[in-house]
Amino acid sequence: MMTEMLDCDAVMRQLWDYLDGELTPDREEAVRAHLVVCNRCHPQHDFEQSFLRALSASRREHSRPDAIKARVLATLRADGFAA
Amino acid sequence: MPWNQEPLKRLIRKVIGASPDPRTPDERFRDEALPHLPAVTRFALSLTRDESDAEDLVQETYLKAFRAWDQFVPGSECRAWLFTICRNTHFRTSRREQRVVAHEDAELEALGAAALHTAAQADGLDDVFARTEVMEAVRAAVDALPDPFREVVVLVDLEEQSYEDAARILEIPKGTVRSRLFRGRRLLQERLIKHARDAGLGAGKTPEIMRKGTSNDD
């Protein structure tokens, strides 16, 4: 089956869905095929991808995870949790 | 989209009846719900933006989850179920009404992101998000997002939930998840590019006209 040909505008509109893995396999392949050959869309893709990586890496953990776990377990046990 | 679990639950009860799980319900809770404690804590922290409030919220979430454990559908996404309880508990206790967001066109937002990239390129900020010094700015920008955008960004971009799971957790249509997510990302990028520009991070590539102005060639 031939991969669908997409223009830059169509690719830009679907870039987030593509990066999020939310496109159908056919559509994903069509976007990928365009990105490989397009020197306008490819830098855009890399830019958005680095943004999503930074965002994912900005995840913040609580400073007292052990205290939270102990407190949750104590609360559950007081409520009958037995495991 | 409301998530009607009843038919699935009936089916699962039938199947479970045929081959019962050897574990007690408490043991299943220990094995399936407790491992998500770090993720639920992060989510609570992102909702409350305060460590002590997050701690209270996590405690209440787990207590509610434990008491409602018989309503959890075995085999479904336990993390998403816990996020749902956490979020509902938060908005109930804080009594905050979510601001109604006007319908946004997700694809226009996607095109807006493309325009932002062009602007960043012009400022020599192509690699801005790959720099470690923007990390704190990223956190601050996420914290500053209005709630409807922040919770979608946190679920999808930080906690790696699919659009579908985020829609279930937030009890909004998938299309709304998508448009809020894209809008939230655009707001973040605008803020971060402005931050980088103000901090002089793009100064490595001084625009041609300024270089001419400081040149000693003549």
Notes on the protein architecture:
The complex is a heterodimer of chains A (83) and B (218). Chain A is built from four helices and no strands. Chain A is mostly helical and 83 residues long. Chain A has one domain. The mean pLDDT of chain A is 92. Chain B is mostly helical and 218 residues long. Chain B folds into two domains: 6-93, RNA polymerase sigma factor, region 2, helix turn helix motif (Rna Polymerase Sigma Factor, Chain: A, Orthogonal Bundle); 106-204, Winged helix-like DNA-binding domain superfamily/Winged helix DNA-binding domain (Arc Repressor Mutant, subunit A, Orthogonal Bundle). Chain B is built from eleven helices and no strands. Chain B has helices at residues 6-18, 25-32, 37-48, 51-67, 78-93, 106-122, 135-144, 147-158, 163-170, 174-198, 208-213. Residues 205-218 of chain B have low confidence and may be disordered. At the A-B interface, helix 1, helix 3 and helix 4 of A face helix 2, helix 3, helix 4, helix 6 and helix 7 of B.
Keywords:
heterodimer, A: 83 residues, mainly alpha, 4 helices, B: 218 residues, Rna Polymerase Sigma Factor, Chain: A, Arc Repressor Mutant, subunit A, 2 domains, elongated, disordered C terminus
Topology, pairings included?
The complex is a heterodimer of chains A (83) and B (218).
Chain A: H1 8-19, H2 25-37, H3 41-57, H4 65-78
Helix pairs in contact in A: 1-2, 1-3
Chain B: H1 6-18, H2 25-32, H3 37-48, H4 51-67, H5 78-93, H6 106-122, H7 135-144, H8 147-158, H9 163-170, H10 174-198, H11 208-213
Helix pairs in contact in B: 3-4, 3-5, 4-5, 5-9, 6-10, 7-10, 8-10, 9-10
Short summary:
The complex is a heterodimer of chains A (83) and B (218). Chain A has 83 residues and is mainly α.
Helix percentage of chain A? 55-70%
- Overall 3D form of chain B: elongated
Report the biggest beta sheet of chain B as strand number plus sense, adding barrel if it closes. Answer: none
Helix/strand class of chain B: mainly alpha
Mean pLDDT of chain B: 83
